[in-house]
């Protein structure tokens, strides 16, 4: 019970100037922003709805083999290390924002699942850690020293360890929600409702107008009696006379 009440206490605060407002959402999403301590900083950093919306509207860069090998083989030079770190920094916040927005678009019965909410919280925490680096690079202060590159690499290693079980947890959450979601109904096809019923193609092709007219005539007219057979002629029925002795 304490675990259910505790998220609500984060929103029941005396002042709205320092804390986010409440919303009707799953327990882990009841606040409009998320704050955490950024690496190497003593103050917390907030991820707002505007941040997520702005990043999710940016196009995701599709990684190619050229992107993976363009920095060369290890050991890399200082220039290659800094270039690789800044290139990685330019990709991860956008991808995390796309994941968060995709989870927000799910039905309420899905996002209220504890496993799905846990993954959402993990994504949000990761974005709050990387967003200070992202904004510093946007202001013209990218990663420019080996000390910053080492600190950023250690941060990424922690995030990778944090997301190790993301796929199994998501799969468990979706399996638990499957029983509450009915499959979408397929719309009826236009041919089955609008097209008039017709005879099969085989019967249409085998029946011609002349055939149908002949069958109609034969049903209306009585059948003629068979013609009497011609009696055999006398010449053929009389046996030949025997010659005189």
TrEMBL record:
Its EC number is 2.7.11.-. One of its GO terms (biological process) is regulation of glucose metabolic process. Pfam families: BCDHK_Adom3 (PF10436). Residues 184-245 are annotated as: Disordered. It is an enzyme of class 2 (transferase). Residues 63-183 form the Branched-chain alpha-ketoacid dehydrogenase kinase/Pyruvate dehydrogenase kinase N-terminal domain. Keywords: ATP-binding, Kinase, Mitochondrion, Nucleotide-binding, Phosphoprotein, Transferase. One of its GO terms (cellular component) is mitochondrial matrix. It is found in: Mitochondrion matrix. Transmembrane segments: none annotated. One of its GO terms (molecular function) is pyruvate dehydrogenase (acetyl-transferring) kinase activity. Residues 188-220 have a biased composition (Low complexity). The keyword Phosphoprotein applies. PANTHER family: [3-METHYL-2-OXOBUTANOATE DEHYDROGENASE [LIPOAMIDE]] KINASE, MITOCHONDRIAL, PYRUVATE DEHYDROGENASE KINASE. Belongs to the PDK/BCKDK protein kinase family. This is Protein-serine/threonine kinase. It comes from Bionectria ochroleuca (Gliocladium roseum).
């Amino acid at each position: 019970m304490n675990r259910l009440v505790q998220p609500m206490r984060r929103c029941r605060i005396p002042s709205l100037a320092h804390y986010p407002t409440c919303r009707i959402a799953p327990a882990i999403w009841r606040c409009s922003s998320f704050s955490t301590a950024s690496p190497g900083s003593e103050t917390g950093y907030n991820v707002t709805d505007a941040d997520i919306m702005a990043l999710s509207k940016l196009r995701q860069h599709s990684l190619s083999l050229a992107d993976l090998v363009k920095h060369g083989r290890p050991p890399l030079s200082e220039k290659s290390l800094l270039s690789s770190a800044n290139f990685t920094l330019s990709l991860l916040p956008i991808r995390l924002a796309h994941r968060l927005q995709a989870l927000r678009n799910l039905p309420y019965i899905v996002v209220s699942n504890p496993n799905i909410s846990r993954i959402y919280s993990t994504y949000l925490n990761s974005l709050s850690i990387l967003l200070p680096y992202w904004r510093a690079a946007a202001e013209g202060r990218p990663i420019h020293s080996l000390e910053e590159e080492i600190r950023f690499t250690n941060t990424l290693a922690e995030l990778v360890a944090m997301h190790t079980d993301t796929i199994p947890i998501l799969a468990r959450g979706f399996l638990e929600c499957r029983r509450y979601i009915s499959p979408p109904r397929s719309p009826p096809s236009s041919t089955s409702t609008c097209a008039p019923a017709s005879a099969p193609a085989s019967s249409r092709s085998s029946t011609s107008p002349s055939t149908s007219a002949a069958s109609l005539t034969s049903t209306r007219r009585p059948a003629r009696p068979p013609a009497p057979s011609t009696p055999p002629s006398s010449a053929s029925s009389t046996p030949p006379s025997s010659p005189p002795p």
